[in-house]
Write a structure and sequence with these properties.
The chain has one domain: Beta Barrel (Thrombin, subunit H). 44% of the residues lie in helices and 27% in strands. It is built from 5 helices and 6 strands. Strands 1-2-3-6-5-4 form a 6-stranded antiparallel beta barrel.
């Protein structure tokens, strides 16, 4: 894990960005939430497999760095295995979830929560089951979230006239870390893009 990513993870929840992701949700059953200690049974579906891979990669980064110093050939071999596993993960996801047909939308995203537009208002305190697909990595996160605000927007958006803000509830620590690193990478990419435009 890069140093700036580690530092941001320690400041969990303070890093936020406007982003384009795939998002879907449904109202959750509070009884299921309480009976399962706030954990989702769908947490290990093919939708989340890339996120699970990313969490494992983060844990193994010190080992990988050591291997890079000792045996570049072994590291090359392990990278090839990683590539094969990612290809299989993409295939499993696309087969089950039909990636091409999933719509994207603009959100404001942090490790603590997100905001997005909806067709209908949601009551404050509503518990949601939230599915987030980060792009372009296709890392999927499934978590619970509480609605903390819902307001009607005045920008002539007739299809999605409401803006909803949610706070993640019992999100896996690895998923929160993944969001932070995703946000930082997006910020770095945007800075590079702006720098190139200035050079021109």
């Amino acid at each position: 894990m890069e140093a700036h990513c580690k530092e941001a993870i320690e400041r969990r929840g303070f890093v936020r960005i406007d982003d384009t992701i795939v998002l879907k949700y449904r109202k959750a059953d509070m009884n299921d939430f309480q009976n399962n200690d706030g954990r989702l049974s769908a947490d290990m579906s093919s939708f989340t497999i890339k996120a699970r891979f990313a969490a494992i990669d983060q844990k193994l980064r010190p080992v990988r760095h050591s291997l890079e110093q000792r045996s570049p050939e072994l590291l090359t071999y392990l990278n090839a295995i990683d590539e094969k596993l990612n290809l299989l993960a993409d295939l499993a996801f696309e087969t089950e979830h039909d990636l091409i047909d999933l719509p994207t939308q603009e959100v404001s995203l942090s490790a603590g929560g997100t905001s997005f537009l909806t067709q209908k208002p949601l009551e404050l305190g509503t518990l949601l089951e939230l599915w987030l697909l980060l792009l372009p990595s296709h890392a999927g996160i499934i978590t619970y979230a509480n609605v903390i605000y819902c307001k009607k927007i005045n920008d002539n958006n007739q299809l999605y006239p409401y803006k909803v803000g949610v706070e993640f509830k019992n999100i896996r620590e690895e998923d929160a870390d993944l969001i932070i690193c995703h946000v930082l990478k997006k910020e770095a990419d945007e800075r590079r893009r702006r720098s190139k435009l200035k050079v021109r």
